[in-house]
Write a structure and sequence with these properties.
Blueprint (H helix, E strand, L loop, with lengths): L3 H19 L4 E5 L3 H12 L4 H13 L21 E7 L4 E8 L5 H11 L4 E3 H10 L10 H13 L20 H8 L5 H12 L5 E7 L5 E7 L20 E4 L3 E7 L1 H7 L1 H10 L4 H14 L5 H4 L4 E7 L4 E8 L11 E5 L5 E4 L1 E5 L2
Helix pairs in contact: 2-3, 6-8, 10-11
Bound molecules: aspartic acid.
The site of aspartic acid has 14 residues, from β8.
Amino acid sequence: MWNRRDWMMGTAALASAAAAQSGPKTISISSANGLRATARAVEWMKQGKDTLDAVIAGVNINEEDPEDDSVGYGGLPNEEGIVELDASVMHGPSRRAGSVASVRNIKYPSRLAKLVMEQTDHIMLVGEGALRFAKAFGMREENLLTERSRLAWLTWKQSQRDAGGHNNWTDGLDAPPKAAAAALRNVFPGVTDELLAYAWDRAAHPVTGTINCLALNARGEMSGVTTTSGLSWKIPGRVGDSPIVGAGLYVDQEVGAAGSTGRGEENIRVAGAHTIIENMRHGMEPKDAVLDCLKRVARNYGNDLKRLEKFDINFYCLRKDGAYAGAALWNGRQRRTGFTSAQFAVNDGGQSRLEKCVFLHERK
Ligand code: ASP
């Protein structure tokens, strides 16, 4: 006769056997800004399209959205007011990767990263070379700075002060100081109070932002993409983790896929996405794999909460059997995105949803 414990264990075993039998499901997960991206990725996979094409089509929504100021067109620029984009892709079935960094004037860096993967014998192209390569393949150069992001950048420029409170980008000595908002209204006629408030907020709290999107289809094939405009007001040429294979993105067809958003410098130091995949390869569950990675980030600061408090970093992972997790260093208000708690997007058919991340610390 089965006792209660045997029965429970037996049921659990049956459930996992059933899960194993049913095989991988079609699923896509992403950073919290990917509700639309994951929905499109799943829709494409259900139409039989390749997993990499599906995630790229998904993140193209963010890349072309002028309201998303952390990715592609409308992304906040570098300190000189020029938008510089980074992206990487990995294709599980062919085990190939492509990436671009510090590329200007190309709206879809994720597509460019795929072109590098498919059309060259290299993995990574940067800056001027990446732009020339894009043009060679017929990609159109476009100004990626929207009026909204130019306003935010100018506001930031004007907010910088020397010890005497002076800034060459505003009046002051030569002419009576005007309220900065009034001066900006002259340059941006018709600007609303709401838009000015947005610009001041971005100037005062420089944001990062990115989309990472991972996918698994019913045949068990996996791919991933990460695309970003990186840190706002960055030094020209600064490259974050997003285009670094093994940091911002890693896919191993035998194990799973992982990616990250948040302060890229911290992720590069722990090779986050690769670390997560290795953790799962050695048997960790997705949640434990992402939390372990966050602990490595925290350890690099001696677990000093005062310094850790200054940034956000999130990890996402999808195992080859469809199990997944999202993790955040901090729960509570997200510095990067303004979300009130750490979340990530999931679509496994039907409507996309936000799920809560596991986290290391709670922000007050
Ligand atoms: N990870 C990106 C970078 O550091 C930015 C972000 O995800 O917020 O460039």
